[in-house]
Design brief:
Layout lengths: L2 H14 L2 H21 L14 H24 L4 H5 L2 H6 L5 H34 L5 H28 L3 H31 L10 H8 L2 H13 L10 H5 L10 H25 L4
Length: 287
Amino acid sequence: MRWPLIARKDFDDAIRSKVFLILIGVFILIVAGGVYAVSLIPEGFFGEQVPLTSDFAVIALQSIFMVFVPLIALVAVFGSIAGERDSNSLRVLLSFPYSRLDVVLGKFIGRALVVTIPILIGFAVAAVVILGVYEDFYIQNYLIFTLLTILLAWSFIGIGIGFSAAAKTRTMAIGLAAGVYLLFLVFWDIIYLLIHYIVRGGVPGVGDWPEWLILIDSLNPISAFGYLSSRYIGLEQFHEFMNPLTLMGRDTLPFYLSEPALVIYLLLWMVVPVVLGYVYFKKSDIS
């Protein structure tokens, strides 16, 4: 297995092309800038006294991350294999003693580093801001949210690598990445609500969501991240639509809606597309 060499080269190429530095700037702006912007919200803006804590910052950032982290991850990876296939550099790479599995794994690890390190830097800078201007810093919750953000990014890196490996051209990879982003961000909710409307004849209200509807929603990696971050950090008290128990009107959750199950769903989105993309890539003609 020579994939570490490809991962190192991919990471070095990102640094040379300034993509890495751009991502660092983007995450510092989103995370640290967002944290500072939250601190400027006037007292009583939400109609009641809300303490200025790191948890409050996480509440404000959660929805932003659900939009931008998947987008950044997909943009960072969609051309990783398909782009090199377009330029014929992939054929040159495979002329060396690298297997196609080395290429897929190396690209995945390399791009994961390219995205993960800027996320960590962004959260580190934001932590300094919190320590400077916030009243309380709940470091355990902050670290959990950081790890969940990385897991969300890895899920979409896996999806993007899978599409990039399967796509014959860079243009096709862009189309697939854009399609999957819109599917999970916009159309997934429409689809499962339409299914509910067909099955039950209406839109579910709070306390009336069936388990199968929550499950369909949870299979969306963006929703899984939302449920997980809300549950682990206690954000459910602020977002009733992020609390499955409230939505179902239940006191307990089945295992397939529990925190471990949600983590498994995110990991599956990270792994399965890479495997499927590799299977297709292995059989494809590079010439």
